């Protein structure tokens, strides 16, 4: 049976989940599909295109959990003239959905962060985040900056999560081992460590709350 482009992407995603990004190669994909390497390049021109497809698929898997702005396809009034469902809760839900999607795959954050040109799903995600920020009362282009900042925080946070130890055996509730910082040299960090570091879930939620609070505090009064 001829190999389809979807088969190549599916096999690549399976190998990513099994072995991580560093072990992913077109040779291994070809072996998984039982074809020659040349058959892979019939569907993707190079490995970078393949990785871009995988990154966009990871992002696409979060979209069901990212609220669609009430404005739909029509740009909302800037700022919106009528109340909408709590934008802070929407931004928070979106951030958690993106994190979960990245954590579902070893090196998921590195995969997404490694491609500057966004795919179709990445553009949909960016558009929704911008729309929710506009509903919160932010004007353009600040709403777009807010969405990008939120996404950058999520990606960076998960990147650190997955780089601590073996990403294939990463568990999102694993706490960071406390460094032995001297209180006389680093008094504030030492005090924070003495209080106890939060686990990843708690730290992520706190960071998102700080960002979302900052976004909503910049909102212009509704007319």
Give structural notes.
There is one protein chain. This protein is an all-alpha fold and 223 residues long. The protein folds into 2 domains: 44 residues, Arc Repressor Mutant, subunit A, CATH 1.10.10; 159 residues, Tetracycline Repressor, domain 2, CATH 1.10.357.10. It contains 10 helices and no strands. α5 runs antiparallel to α10. About 9% of the residues have low confidence.
Q: How many helical elements? A: 10
Number of strands: 0
The coarse overall form would be flat
Radius of gyration: 20 Å
Which residues form runs of ≥5 with pLDDT under 50? 72-77, 79-84, 167-173
CATH architecture of the largest domain: Orthogonal Bundle
The share of residues in extended strands comes to under 5%
CATH structural class of the largest domain: Mainly Alpha
The fold-level CATH name of the largest domain is: Tetracycline Repressor, domain 2
Helix content: 55-70%
Compact overview of the structure:
With 223 residues, this protein is mainly alpha-helical. Helices cover 58% and strands 0% of the residues.
Throw out a few tags for this protein:
223 residues, mainly alpha, Arc Repressor Mutant, subunit A, Tetracycline Repressor, domain 2, 2 domains, flat
How do the helices and strands line up, and which of them pair or pack?
Elements: H1 5-19, H2 26-33, H3 37-41, H4 47-60, H5 87-103, H6 108-113, H7 120-135, H8 142-163, H9 187-195, H10 200-217
């Amino acid at each position: 049976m001829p190999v389809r482009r979807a088969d190549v992407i599916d096999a690549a995603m399976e190998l990513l989940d099994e072995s991580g990004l560093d072990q992913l190669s077109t040779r291994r994909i070809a072996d998984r599909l039982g074809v020659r390497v040349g058959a892979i390049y019939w569907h993707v021109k190079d490995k970078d295109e393949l990785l871009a497809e995988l990154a966009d698929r990871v992002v696409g898997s979060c979209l069901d959990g990212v609220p669609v702005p009430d404005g739909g396809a029509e740009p909302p009034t800037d700022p919106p003239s009528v109340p909408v469902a709590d934008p802070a809760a929407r931004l928070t839900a979106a951030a958690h959905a993106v994190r979960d999607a990245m954590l579902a795959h070893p090196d998921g954050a590195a995969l997404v962060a490694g491609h500057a040109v966004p795919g179709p799903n990445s553009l949909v995600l960016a558009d929704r985040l911008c729309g929710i920020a506009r509903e919160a009362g932010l004007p353009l282009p600040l709403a777009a900056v807010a969405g990008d900042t939120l996404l950058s925080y999520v990606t960076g946070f998960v990147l650190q999560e997955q780089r601590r130890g073996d990403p294939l055996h990463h568990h999102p509730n694993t706490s960071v081992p406390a460094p032995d910082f001297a209180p006389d040299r680093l008094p504030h960090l030492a005090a924070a460590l003495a209080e106890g570091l939060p686990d990843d879930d708690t730290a992520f939620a706190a960071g998102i709350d700080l960002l979302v609070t900052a976004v909503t505090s910049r909102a212009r009064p509704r007319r």
